[in-house]
Amino acid sequence: MITTFGTETSADSLYHKLKEMLADVVPDFELRLKAEQAAEINALKREKNAVILGHNYMEPALFYSIPDFVGDSLDLARKAAATDKDIIIFCGVRFMAETAKLLNPSKMVLLPSEKAGCSLAASITAEDVRELRRQFPGVPVVTYVNTYADVKAESDICCTSSNAVAVVNSLNADTVIFLPDEFLAGNVAKETGRHIIFPTKDPRHASDSLDYQMIGWPGRCEVHDKFTVEDIINIRKQFPDVVILAHPECSPEVVAASDYSASTNAMIRYVEQTKAPRYLLLTECSMGENIAAANPDKEMLRLCSIRCPHMNQITLEDTLASLQKLQYQIEIPEDIRVRAARAVERMIAIG
Ligand code: 13P
Ligand code: SF4
């Protein structure tokens, strides 16, 4: 289990704790500066009765110093739903902060950067979902949480990478529309034994073939799209005993060539609970650093330096400014919020 120092308000004590974990990853002068900023954030957080939720992709110094809770999308949505604090600061991307707001309409939810988007969330609009519903009447719509509130509002139920298969199975439907991640949909289709078509990529499939049980959309995560089967072949040649973990936003071919695929929380647990000599994570690079810091006895291979440009927007400076100026507040029109919250709550009820 990962422990953070989100209650620490002494810069000196925070610096020493961070140094013990992150000396190999963050230069000393930077660590001192970051410890000071983090201590100020933690003091202000207490004063303003705020909670900080941090996604597993946050950079190591921020990840270990200010969040009260760290986790994957589902875990943090649950933490948001359960908090009794007045203010929620989301150190993650916009769709995550929106999910927190959907579940907490009366609380203030802050996202430290206005630029923290997501290529998946940007790949689909509410009108696209309405058009699919017109094309496939009566077919239930499952929407990945990596979407904006207006898209969630057009959906029957949401899912995350950790419960996508369970959500699809829970519908007991012959056919489901699964949006917008092409690769996650492909991986879920494979696991549930469903044939998937992508009508907007190839409209002939929808009219020619009756043999499909899933309808997908060509959205992709710009980070996970970069990993290839060749990367895996090359790394296995160099390190035959490596265990490779791939996020299900990677292509089905990459997932098939890996040893394990699951949400970011499940990947962290897998490394904690297994005893391989070395691991390679096919996901956002900061998470590899965060796992390495918590598991000094295990070797984490670094294949790349692929950072999510959106998660990367969240810094200690901006989080401090966010708390001081109460910016950037997430607002969702009430008619959209009510419908989107229903889709998220249905998902949370499933697990
Ligand atoms: P998790 O829900 O597995 O943390 O994934 C979120 C995400 O954005 C992955 O790119
Ligand atoms: Fe979106 Fe990909 Fe970044 Fe996750 S890693 S927030 S899916 S762009």
Task: Describe this protein's structure.
There is one protein chain. This protein is an alpha/beta fold and 351 residues long. Helix content is 46%, strand content 13%. The protein has 16 helices and 13 strands. Strands 6-5-7-9-8 form a five-stranded parallel sheet, with helices on both faces. It has a four-stranded parallel sheet with strand order 2-1-3-4, with helices on both faces. Helix 5 (94-103) crosses helix 16 and helix 8 crosses helix 9. The model has no long low-confidence stretch (mean pLDDT 95). It binds 1,3-dihydroxyacetonephosphate and iron/sulfur cluster. The site of 1,3-dihydroxyacetonephosphate (13P) has 11 residues, from loops.
List the ions, cofactors and other small molecules found in this model: 1,3-dihydroxyacetonephosphate, iron/sulfur cluster
Shape: globular
Our measurement of the CA-to-CA distance between the termini, rounded to an integer number of angstroms, reads 20 Å
Topology order in helix (H) and strand (E) letters? HHEHEHEHEHEHEHEHEHEHEHEHEHEHH
How many strands appear in the DSSP assignment? 13
Q: For the largest beta sheet, what order do the strands appear in spatially?
A: 6-5-7-9-8
In quaternary terms, these chains amount to: single chain
The Cα radius of gyration reads 20 Å
Low-confidence stretches: none
Nearest-integer average pLDDT = 95
Question: Structural class given helices, strands, pairing?
Answer: alpha/beta
Number of helices: 16
Largest sheet: 5 strands, parallel
Q: What is the percentage of strand-forming residues? A: 5-15%
Report helical residue fraction.
Answer: 40-55%
